[in-house]
Amino acid sequence: MSQLNKVRWAVIGLGWFGEVHADNLAEMPEIELAALCTRRPERLNEVGDRLGVKRRYTDYHELLEDPEIDVVSITTHINDHRDIAIDALRSGKHVLLEKPMAPTLADCEQIMEAAQTADGFFMVGHICRFDPRVTIAKQAIEEGRIGNIISMYARRNLSKAIGEMVLDDISALMGDGIHDADLMLWFSQAKVSTVYAQEVHPGKNKYPDAGWSIARLDNGAVAVVESVWHLPETTPYTIDARMEIIGTEGALYINCGEAGLAIHDTQGVKLPDTMYWPRPFGSYFGILQAELRYFANCVRRGEAPQRITPAESCAAVAWMAAATESARTGSVITF
To answer: Which of 112, 22, 176 is nearest to 312 (CA)?
Structure first.
């Protein structure tokens, strides 16, 4: 770390969310955004110039050799996650890998093997675990306020305009359904026994626009995940995300879609993000910064992250990968 005890951070991958990472890191006083990396020189200079970052790389291997970097965010295409994460862990860097960990269970297991012997810490960025609405629900479950969980249902739906930008890279279930799969396993502390899923593909992109997955957990509970990236383009939601958890003694209802603000102007009604990475008056705050700050504090204190473990992240991938296979074959997948 730097003499000022700032964690020196680099971002590998400057797509839309990589830029969001970089923008937030650049505004956090306890972090130094020290380097950027993308294979596209024009994009590298665009973001680097705007944020005043001098260290710029088009080859991530060269970045990993830089001794002035403590932490890397890996915000690349999911198919690149395995190799970059393993190389970063072997280089001794601390690694924050954006979810999903990797496209397959086998890839995830290779990353976890590298993390077990690495000098640096490793965490997958499941941002919803840092959402106060979610963490308060988790606390209520642990306090026994709803008894034993018997049923969970979640939806996480986006407009087709967003879907058309993303669905050549990842399916709706793997891209967003994985959030709720992870939360359901976290809430229940159970494992998946069987998975059945169906997907629909009305759009022209590579991956299906919508999917539903139902899982039977080993504690007897049923868990249903809905992810549809085909809402009308005029939908007011930034994201329509809700979850219902029913137990033997009560229930919980989490609404992450309506974040407390509706703006009605000549363009219609919009419900903007007020929680994840809003930027009122030009300054970011929110849940993404909470996640980044948590990992930075782990590095600063020398304490391995506990909010989410690699095995937990791997379990969510396993569920969504099984859902993809079930939708393809029409079969129930047994774990």
So the answer is: 112
Summarize the chain as % helix, strand, coil (round to 5). Answer: 40, 25, 35
Segment 264-317, tens digit of pLDDT: 999 999 999 999 999 999 999 999 999 999 999 999 999 999 999 999 999 999
Cβ distance 91 to 65 under 8 Å? Answer: yes
The enclosing H or E element of 282 equals none
Is residue 75 a contact partner of residue 21, using CB atoms and an 8 Å limit? Answer: yes
For 195, half-sphere exposure in the C-beta direction (CA atoms, 13 angstrom radius) is 27
Give, in order, the Cα–Cα distances in Å from 301 to each of 1, 211, 278, 288, 295: 11, 41, 28, 20, 10
Short-list 226, 224, 223, CA closest to 209: 226
> How distant, in Å, are the alpha carbons of 78, 88, 95, 110, 208 from that of 114?
17, 10, 11, 6, 32
Residue 155 DSSP SS3: strand
Q: Name the CATH code of domain 132-279+327-334 (choices 3.40.50.2300, 3.40.50.10810, 3.40.250.10, 3.30.360.10).
A: 3.30.360.10
Q: At what angle do helices 132-142 and 178-188 cross, to 10 degrees?
A: 30
User: Which SS3 state, helix, strand or coil, does residue 264 take?
Assistant: strand
- Do 56 and 46 contact (CB within 8 A), yes or no? no
- Write b or e for each residue in 276-289: b if 16 or more Cβ atoms lie within 10 A of its Cβ, otherwise e: bbbeeeeebbbbbb
Domain ranges for the chain, please list them.
Answer: 7-125, 132-279+327-334
Which helix (H) or strand (E) is 97 found in, with range?
strand 94-98
Q: CB within 8 A of 219, min separation 6: which ones? A: 148, 149, 188, 189, 190
CB 166 within 8 Å of CB 229: yes
pLDDT digits (tens, 9 = 90+) for 82-110: 999 999 999 999 999 999 999 999 999 99
Cα angle: 136, vertex 197, 81; to 5 degrees = 70
CA angle, residues 219, 224, 226, in degrees to nearest 5: 155
- What one-character DSSP code corresponds to residue 293? H
